[in-house]
Amino acid sequence: MDVIAKLRLSDRIPSAPPSPHESRATAFLRPAVFGGSDGLVSNLALVMGVAGASSNNQAIVVAGIAGLLAGAFSMAVGEYISVRSQHELFDAQRRLQQQQLVDDEPGERAILERIYRERGFSDDEAQAIVDTLFATPERALDSMMRDEVGLDPRAIGGPWAAAGSSFAAFVSGAVIPLLPFLLLTGTAALLGSVGISLIALFLLGIGVSRLTGRPPLVCGFRQMALGGTAAIVTFVIGQAIGSVL
């Protein structure tokens, strides 16, 4: 096997196939699971806190809707700024790296050769790899960005996609504890909210297990216990505040 084929197998050249460790399904599942979990836990805690302080169903619904919207927009704006900033950083570093290739190509070649030697390639193999990469300026620049600077645009994603997915995921989680209060009142709404939220938390924990490789039941019960604890604590605090006001 020649040295370039070996390099492709180690997923160092952009034309190499995507790593099986990060499928498209997994990349979609991660923000959906964690965004949904954030929305569910935060709005469950908010709704329980208000329910502990007041039995007014309208006040609970208004607070729940406000929490849903505030959290969703906060998540979306935060994700947009984060991903956009990563793109701007990448563009700035790419311009700098492009200028460095123009000013000192031999020095940049030496840096890349050293990187490949540190990864276990021989001197001749490292030189052959760099010769192949530098035969195409764009590939050389991409390799320097990925291997020297440590930035890869494939791992960043789009800012609008990140904002939209975070918004949708948060809303999908935050609406769950609110639904019973839209349909019922009093104790039935309170118990219904807790019940469906705990079920949703358990299912989200199973989703987390798909990402972490941990036992599904362990993750499910852990997620349910943590979310339930947050609900109990905020409900008790709400009761204490309500008794004072």
Gap between N and C termini, in Å? 77 Å
Put simply, the count of helices is 10
H/E element sequence: HHHHHHHHHH
Strand content: under 5%
> What's the helical proportion of residues?
over 70%
Output mean pLDDT.
85
Structural class: mainly alpha
Shape field? elongated
Give the low-confidence spans. Answer: 9-25
Main sheet overview: none
Number of domains: 1
In brief, what are we looking at here?
The protein has 245 residues and is mostly helical. It is built from 10 helices and no strands.
Helix and strand arrangement:
Layout: H1 3-9, H2 24-53, H3 57-103, H4 105-118, H5 123-134, H6 137-149, H7 159-174, H8 179-183, H9 186-212, H10 216-244
Helix pairs in contact: 2-3, 2-7, 2-9, 2-10, 3-4, 3-6, 3-7, 4-5, 4-6, 9-10
